[in-house]
Amino acid sequence: MKHIISVLVENRFGSLNRVAAMFSARGFNLESISIGETEDPEISRMTIVTRGDDQIINQVLKQLNRLIDTIKVTDLTRQPHVERELLLMTLKLSKTTQHEIFELINVFKGKVVDIKQKSITIEVIGSPDKINTSIDIFKPYGIKELARSGVVAIHRGE
Amino acid sequence: MHTTGQILNGSEIFFECLRRENVEYIFGYPGGSLLKVYETLHDVEDIRHILVRHEQGATHMAEGYARATGKPGVVLVTSGPGATNTVTGIANAYMDSSPIVVFTGQVPSSLIGNDAFQEADIVGITRPITKHNFLVKDVKELAITIRKAFYLATTGRPGPVVVDMPKDVLAATCAFEWPETVEIRGFKPTFKCHKNQIEKAAHKIAKAKRPLLYVGGGVITAEASEELRTLAIKYNIPVTMTLQGLGSFPGNHPLSMGMLGMHGTYWANQAVNNCDLLIAVGARFDDRVTGKIDAFATQAYKIHNDIDPTNVDKNIKVDLPVVGDSKDFLASLLEEMPEKTEDREPWLADIQKWRKKCPLSYTIEPDSLKTEFVIEEVSKQTAGNAVVVTDVGQHQMWTTQFYTFLNPRSIISSGGLGTMGYGLPAAIGAAFGVTDRPIILFCGDGGFMMNIQELVTAVYSRIPIKIFLINNSYLGMVRQWQELFHKEKYSFTDLGDSNPDFVKLAEAFGCKALMADNPENAKEAIKIALDYNEGPVLVDCRVVRKDMVFPMVPAGGAISDMLLARLNPKTMV
Ligand SMILES: Cc1ncc(C[n+]2csc(CCOP(=O)(O)OP(=O)(O)O)c2C)c(N)n1
Ligand SMILES: [Mg+2]
Questions:
Q1: Which residue in A109, B86, B313, B559 has a CA-CA distance of 20 to 30 Å to B100?
Q2: If you count DSSP H runs as helices and E runs as strands, how many of each does chain B have, helices first?
Q3: Does B321 sit in the ligand 1 pocket, CB within 6 Å?
Q4: Nearest CB to A68: which of B124, B187, B312?
Q5: Do B310 and A63 touch (CB under 8 A)?
Q6: Domains of chain A with bracketed CATH
Q7: Which helix (H) or strand (E) holds A4?
Q8: What are the start-end ranges of the E strands in B378-431?
Q9: Which residues, by Cβ under 5 Å, contact ligand 2, an ion?
């Protein structure tokens, strides 16, 4: 099963490396990892997406906790949380497709970030599911390039 | 002694911090990045620097010292090759949870990342084999980093910590500040066991008809032998120990089952198979202990105490996890135990039957020498009071079987990593730490050559270790597997034509040396060696060449399927 794990780590050179290296050393699956500063500049938040049965996820959580640079490890999967991912994508553009593309951007509540004669770059924000769907839908128009941020997630407030 | 607020350079701060950590010995080797440190060291009188002959030796010495004393071992090496030479020793300390702090010199900060002369990314290299590691970027961070390094190495589950110190940091100056306390927000080990879990455990123990204590190195680290002894004896619970746990319970006590696992005793493994309650204390269900997981202790309710939560439910699913310090675990259990427990006599009688069925035995012949005899004789002559260090191989397993360990911190052996070459330096390190007990080394002829250079270190410091070179002129343990499982293809394990004359070799190092090749002269040589305390002494024990260690659980096999003797008598000596 897929799990989203939120990890607060010391905002220090090497912290990301320690986490990533632990995953590869122990053979854990690492689907995505994203990291950024929090409100406290000394602490970063990492969002990790991984897969495994309960026993494996248990080990993942414990091994994360064991790293000295990790301050707090939370499995968000079974708690109320919000998850979002950002997609940037450049599509081929032509007179015939232009109209449809613009309509679809609206459907996905996306934005145009750049437009040229023969290409258009858009952004879509949403759950990983929504991002997957939008990629599928846009594919027939010709994707020239795409980049996904990986998931970031957070507890829902009280 | 320097005072707080005094302006010091990085090297002076380094020694001042070690002083405040009560470091007695540094095992080290100089080099370009450490010139400033060695300049300062020249006038340091209260900390002894031991010059090793290879940096790997320094790490094993530090570990031997740490395991013998319980205090952290300290290593000091230069950048690049000096640092990379420590990798095996660090990995070994990591696998066996030994507290060592390794200080590495580094190229100047401005050159890091430039492929500078003697640069190696030792922080990157050692990340997966250290408990934690640091690169010190500012001299103002040096003292607090050293403080943290010792704290991390020794607190909770111990382990190696690396501190990488660039050359410019060691020369820069700042006002010295010694932090009295350390606070690491990402490191808060649980010492106190959960009361509920203890109550449940006590209840289970009282109700069990066939309980078994399975005890690992954690009990020795936690200094909990006394509590273990009380619990086992008071409630009549037999105790089996891992390689690292030997000595935590006296080997001569009727409740002692010896070691379990691949080369454990038949009766210990039978007890594991038949117990209805397994109480694992400070042990980690290593595959050399469990054999085939699905067949391990299938009838037992399993309680597992460990200070490291990652050890729980890692290899084997347990019924009652109790995270916390093993001393707290055992002491709290003693408080919670009810007066009345189930009768254990029938269980102990079963164990007695297994013990009789397949005892550990060997034959003595007047004109050939057996490793078992040498070890048992040393055990007798030292009355089980020595600190026994081993290398890796057959002689190591025989040591677990034929030396009777009576006290904790009596066996120092590479378990998790199985590092040949560990024994000699580890014995030297142990001898620096412990001077009131004899230090014995049982070492194979293969492994001895892997850190032979450290004999110089022992001779120079007149370290009275007693080296019993178990010389079968074979990489014996590999030969054993070749005979049993690889069609008797003895590929590159016969050292008969290539081994040196070990007596002459030792003498060339300035080490006293003797030879033994039968029980009679072995007995005499052991006596001479034990009485000689002017420096190291080596006894070249020319043992029978093709002996095998039994019983044995084939790798990955169920521990109920032990091989009890050689399958193919035609290859007997
Ligand atoms: C550094 C290292 N290399 C290889 C091995 C694999 N190995 C395990 S036991 C052994 C043979 C050891 O031979 P020896 O030191 O003579 O001891 P014996 O088994 O004969 O007692 C070998 C090669 C190892 N454990 N460590
Ligand atoms: Mg040998």
A1: B313
A2: 23, 20
A3: no
A4: B187
A5: yes
A6: 2-75 (3.30.70.260), 82-155 (3.30.70.1150)
A7: strand A2-10
A8: 387-390, 411-412
A9: B 444-446, 472, 474, 476
Catalytic site positions of B: 55, 117-118, 167, 477
Q: Is the pTM of this model over 0.90?
A: yes
Q: From edge to edge, which strands make up the β-sheet containing B132-135?
A: B48-51, B25-29, B73-77, B100-106, B161-166, B132-135
Please list the rounded mean pLDDT of every run of 10 residues in chain B (573 residues): 93 98 98 98 98 98 98 98 98 98 98 96 97 98 98 98 98 97 95 98 98 98 98 98 98 98 96 98 96 95 97 94 98 96 96 95 96 98 97 98 98 98 98 98 98 98 98 98 96 97 98 98 98 98 97 90 71 38
Query: Cα(B447) to centroid of ligand 1, in Å?
Result: 6
What span, in angstroms and rounded, lies between the C-alpha atoms of B502 and B557?
38
Domains and CATH numbers, chain B: 7-175 (3.40.50.970), 195-357 (3.40.50.1220), 371-550 (3.40.50.970)
Give chain B's largest Cα–Cα span: 76
Residue at token pair 């001042």: B16
Supply the ipTM of this predicted assembly.
Answer: 0.90
Cα–Cα distance, B96 to B215 (Å, whole number): 14
Distance CA B509, CA B480 (A): 32
How far is the alpha carbon of B101 from chain A, nearest alpha carbon, in Å? 16
As beta bridge partners, residue B104 has B77, B164
CB count in 10 Å sphere of residue B407: 18
Which residue's entry shows tokens 């020795």?
Answer: B220
Rounded to 5°, the CA angle B322-B327-B329 comes to 25
Helix, strand or coil for residue A24? Answer: helix
